[in-house]
């Protein structure tokens, strides 16, 4: 297999090559005149089919979420849709005991991931980037949690947290009646318990992203820094970290999006019971639950959408601007 | 990772210094801590329930065997759910690669006004949290009648529905990655073909696509694992337990044997095996796919 080419691609494509690389050679205008009618049909088909599918299932539904957020609807006939203005939002903000905790937990989720596993992943990547023996073996160990599904991760960690039979309580002797520490049920503890499992996974993910980023750091920079007598920390702080900027952007966006999407782990743990509510869980429970309220669920989705767009739009603007000028 | 680094490795590998030894000790310990949850699950799964309930989980084993794995597999008819996953994942991966490479080809080879905008739409769509679109999507799936096409007569609760949303959602990411990749191919290739009178389809199918094999392999590996691991779409868009793919079915299955954590461990580990095999065999592809389009959320 052409493994060699494959392994070179990440650096090449993860970030657009710096400098005036010929990435964006414009095709001459005359090009289009060479196209036959059949070619035009083929092109329309090739661009059209995927676009229609994507737009219909992703963007039309996202727009529908926005519109439905201002209505009530029983989901049966279209004529039962009623415009209610901001009522859903008013109720959500003032009258839903789960909403603010959920939003808060999403924020905590992000802060925890960016403060602990992300720097730790970077740290591991730095160590593994040192021409070290068995680097691949270590990488595999750290990366394994990313490969396993979050559902499986949830079940695996339950074996650790279970009050009766779990590893932690068995070791510290808290698995007897009266001494239970309920890592999953106690609303003061459960978010942190889930976050440990989430961090376990996030570290490996960040490590891989940073390893790819570090491969792109020019080794001569490091040598120059070493010649100047800088120690490891100084080299990292003033030479390597600044050159990792593109990776840092990606890491930030990935971490925010992951925190907004967080769902599987919590759902497997306790279905988002008290202490672990998340926006994604509220939306889903509203659908699956008996009293499905479409407009109300959509209002929560709009909150999630607005937060996501605040992140997605600036990111895309910078990415695509770079691409154009690149 | 590339050949140049390998060469450097040989040259620069310094004799062991105390700092290096310390680093290895640190890495070995940390790796073991990282593997511990999975190893703990394997340990629990290998022990009979009667023994662990008697002696506790933190204890020396008397018997270690694969009975839990056998029972979990048979009791919950896992073969059935693995087949469900195959029916969803295989078409989804193939279609995603096909459709997104077509869009990428269009966007990267033809300078129509739409390009940047189209690529933006795809990339942004892929970054949205799934829950933003799920409420209307769920309603839409319930409203679309497909008598005779799917067993449920609707898009809801059908493998087809899951395939479609996987393709629609994932093609955003793949289109972005592939278009970047195709842009790096020399333009002369297609230019010459066009002058020679080759059709657009032939340019795509016989010239550009074969050159994209490495990227396609990486994305294919990544997609297989993601789609296999998907939990959310199936939980919401499938109502009949029988129709669920394995990862989502696990949630119901664990209910069947929830009084027996050892059996749950065995069941969960069994569902992880296919991903682990794919990962170990195609590790390079997986990792390069992930970093190739590192914008994935």
UniProtKB/TrEMBL annotation, chain A:
Places the protein is found: Cell membrane
InterPro entries reported for this sequence: MetI-like (IPR000515), MetI-like_sf (IPR035906), UgpAE/MalFG_permease (IPR050809)
* ABC transmembrane type-1 domain mapped to chain residues: 103-315
- UniProt entry keywords in alphabetical sequence: Cell membrane, Membrane, Sugar transport, Transmembrane, Transmembrane helix, Transport
Read off the Gene3D superfamilies from this record: MetI-like (1.10.3720.10)
Pfam families, per database record: BPD_transp_1
Chain ranges passing through the membrane: 41-70, 107-125, 137-160, 191-212, 294-317
Q: Which domain of life is it from?
A: Bacteria
The topology of this chain with respect to the membrane is: Multi-pass membrane protein
Protein name, UniProt field? Multiple sugar transport system permease protein
UniProtKB/TrEMBL annotation, chain B:
Entry superkingdom: Bacteria
Any idea where the ABC transmembrane type-1 domain is? Answer: 82-282
Please give the chief subcellular localization of this protein: membrane
Keywords linked to the UniProt accession: Cell membrane, Membrane, Sugar transport, Transmembrane, Transmembrane helix, Transport
Q: What is this protein called?
A: Multiple sugar transport system permease protein
Transmembrane region(s): 21-46, 81-107, 114-138, 158-182, 203-228, 263-282
Q: Where in the cell is it found?
A: Cell membrane
Return the similarity comment.
Belongs to the binding-protein-dependent transport system permease family.
Pfam families given for it?
BPD_transp_1
| Bilayer disposition of the protein | Multi-pass membrane protein
**SUPFAM superfamilies, alphabetically?**
MetI-like
């Amino acid at each position: 297999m052409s493994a060699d080419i494959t392994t070179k691609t990440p650096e090449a494509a993860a970030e657009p090559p710096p400098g005036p690389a010929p990435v964006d050679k414009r095709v001459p205008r005359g090009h289009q005149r060479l196209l036959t009618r059949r070619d035009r049909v083929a092109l329309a088909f090739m661009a059209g089919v995927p676009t229609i599918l994507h737009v219909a299932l992703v963007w039309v539904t996202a727009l529908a979420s926005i519109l439905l957020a201002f209505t009530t609807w029983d989901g049966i006939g279209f004529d039962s849709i009623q415009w209610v203005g901001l009522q859903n939002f008013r109720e959500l903000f003032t009258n839903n005991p789960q909403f603010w905790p959920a939003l808060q937990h999403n924020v905590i989720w992000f802060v925890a991931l960016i403060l602990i596993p992300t720097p730790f992943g970077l740290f591991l990547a730095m160590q593994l980037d040192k021409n070290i023996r068995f680097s691949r073996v270590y990488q595999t160990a750290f990366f394994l949690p990313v490969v396993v599904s979050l559902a499986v991760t949830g079940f695996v960690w339950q074996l650790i947290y279970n009050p009766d039979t779990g590893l932690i309580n068995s070791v510290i002797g808290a698995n007897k009646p009266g001494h239970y520490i309920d890592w999953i049920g106690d609303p003061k503890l459960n978010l942190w318990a889930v976050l440990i499992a989430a961090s376990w996974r996030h570290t490996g993910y960040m490590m891989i992203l940073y390893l790819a980023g570090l491969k792109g750091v020019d080794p001569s920079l490091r040598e120059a820094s070493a010649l100047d007598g800088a120690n490891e920390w100084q080299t990292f702080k003033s030479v390597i970290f600044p050159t990792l900027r593109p990776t840092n952007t990606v890491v930030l966006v990935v971490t925010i999006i992951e925190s907004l999407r967080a769902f599987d782990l919590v759902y497997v743990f306790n279905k988002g019971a008290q202490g672990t509510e998340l926006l994604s869980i509220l939306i889903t429970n509203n659908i699956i639950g008996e009293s499905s309220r479409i407009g109300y669920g959509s209002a929560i989705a709009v909150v999630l959408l607005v937060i996501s767009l605040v992140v997605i739009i600036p990111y895309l603007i910078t990415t695509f601007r770079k691409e154009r000028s690149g | 990772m590339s050949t140049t680094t390998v060469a450097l490795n040989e040259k620069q590998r310094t004799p062991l210094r105390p700092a290096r030894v310390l680093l290895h000790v640190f890495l070995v310990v940390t790796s073991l801590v990282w593997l511990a949850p999975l190893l703990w699950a394997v340990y629990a799964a290998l022990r009979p329930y009667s023994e662990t309930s008697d002696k506790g989980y933190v204890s020396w084993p008397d018997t270690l065997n694969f009975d839990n794995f056998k029972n979990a597999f048979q009791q919950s008819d896992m073969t059935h759910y693995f087949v469900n996953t195959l029916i969803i994942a295989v078409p989804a991966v193939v279609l995603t690669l096909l459709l997104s490479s077509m869009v990428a080809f269009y966007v990267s080879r033809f300078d129509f006004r739409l390009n940047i905008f189209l690529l933006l739409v795809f990339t942004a769509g892929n970054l949205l949290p799934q829950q933003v679109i799920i409420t209307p999507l769920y309603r839409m799936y319930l409203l679309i009648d497909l008598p005779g096409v799917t067993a449920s007569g609707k898009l809801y609760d059908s493998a087809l529905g899951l395939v479609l949303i996987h393709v629609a959602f994932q093609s955003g990411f793949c289109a972005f990655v592939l278009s970047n990749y195709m842009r790096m191919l020399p333009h002369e290739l297609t230019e010459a073909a066009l002058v020679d009178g080759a059709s657009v389809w032939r340019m795509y199918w016989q010239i550009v696509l074969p050159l994209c094999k490495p990227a396609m392999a990486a994305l294919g590996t990544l997609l297989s694992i993601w789609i296999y691991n998907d939990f959310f779409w199936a939980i919401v868009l499938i109502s009949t337990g029988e129709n669920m793919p394995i990862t989502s079915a696990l949630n119901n299955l664990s209910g069947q044997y929830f009084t027996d954590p050892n059996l749950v461990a065995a069941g969960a580990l069994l569902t992880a095996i296919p991903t682990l095999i794919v990962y170990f065999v195609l590790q390079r592809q997986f990792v390069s796919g992930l970093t190739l389009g590192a914008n994935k959320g």
